[in-house]
Amino acid sequence: MLSFTGSRLDRADHVRADPERLAGYMNWKARLLALDGLMPSIGDDGRLVWGTLADAAEDAELVFLGLDEGKACFASVPPRGDASPRMANPALWSLMATLQPDDLALYGGARSIVDWHARHRFCAQCGGDTKIAKGGWQRDCTACGASHFPRTDPVTIMLVEHEGRLMLGRGLGWPEGRFSALAGFVEPGESIEEGVAREVLEESGVRVRDVSYIASQPWPFPSQLMIGCHAYADDDALSIDETEMAEIIWFTREEVTAALKGEKPFVSPPPHAIAHHLMQWWISR
User: Which residues sit opposite 153 in a β-bridge?
Assistant: First the structure.
C-alpha cells in the first residue's frame, strides 16, 4: 500500500452537506485530532492523539474529516499554513515515519485540508474575508458570495524506459547520488499523457511515446496528487534543463535493483515515495 492511502474514515458527504445533521454530530462523542500547528501529535502507543471538541479554541474553525465507526472526527485550522516542501522539515517526516499506515493516511488528508484553509482566508475574486462552509470542504466569501474549494494539484511522475534502461534524475539542490523519477505539474488544458511528454521533453530533451498509467498517491505537501506513469523513449540522447536538473542518467535494471536494496550506484527514493514503488514495479515486470 502506498503511503497516505487507505484512510479508515468515511468522508460522509451526506453529513457535511447538511448543516443540521453535522451539528448533531458535534457532541461529546466527537473527536478532535490533536495538532501542533500542522505537526501531528503522537501518543506513547505510536498512534495519533485525539481529544474532544472541548479542547478546541473558542474561535476555532473546525473541519469535519469524516466518521470513524460512527464518531465524527474534526481538526482545527491552524493560524498559519505551510506550502514548503516536505524536505524543508525533516522533523515532520521523522514523526510520520512512526505512524501506522491508516493513521498516516488520516493525518495526510487532515493536514492538506486544514493547511488549505489556513492559506485561503481571503477571497481570490474580491479579496474579502471567507468563512468555512460545508463542514470545512468549502469556503464562502462574506463580501461577494463566491465559493472556493480545497484544491488538489495533479503532478505526473514518470519512468521513462529505453532499451532496458531507466531514466532517473537528480534535481537542483538534491544531495549527491540521490536520483528519482522525473516529475512535474500537469498544466491547464493538458491531458496526463501530454503532461508526461512535455515534462520529460523540457527536463531531458527526450521525446516519449506509449504513456501508460501505473498508480497514484496523495502527497500532502501541500496538496498534490502524484500520478505515476511509464513511457518509452525512441532515443536516449539527453539535453538537460540545467535550471531544474543537476543530472539525468540512464540506469540499467541491475543498477536500479541494487539501489533499491540500499546498494550503489545511487540512492533511491525512500519507501514512502511513489517513485520507490514505481521502480519496484519496473524491475518486477
Answer: 224
Contact 130, 141 (CB under 8 A): yes
3-state SS class at 241: coil
Cell of 7: 484512510
The single-letter DSSP state of residue 53 is: G
In the structure grid, which three cell numbers stand for residue 106, read together?
Answer: 488520516
pLDDT digits (tens, 9 = 90+) for 80-130: 998 776 656 788 878 888 899 999 999 999 999 999 999 999 999 999 999
C-beta separation of 130 from 140 below 8 A: yes
Question: What is the model's pLDDT at position 83?
Answer: 73
Q: At what angle do helices 274-284 and 253-260 cross, to 10 degrees?
A: 130
> Residue 141 is placed in which grid cell?
466569501
Residue among 181, 159, 157, 161 at smallest CA distance from 236 = 161
The cell 466527537 sits on which residue? 30
**Rounded distance, CA 31 to CA 72, Å?**
6
Q: Per the omega criterion (within 30 degrees of 0), is the bond before 222 cis?
A: yes
DSSP string, 237-277: -----TTTEEEEEEEEHHHHHHHHTT-TT-BPPPTTSHHHH
CB 251 within 8 A of CB 265: yes
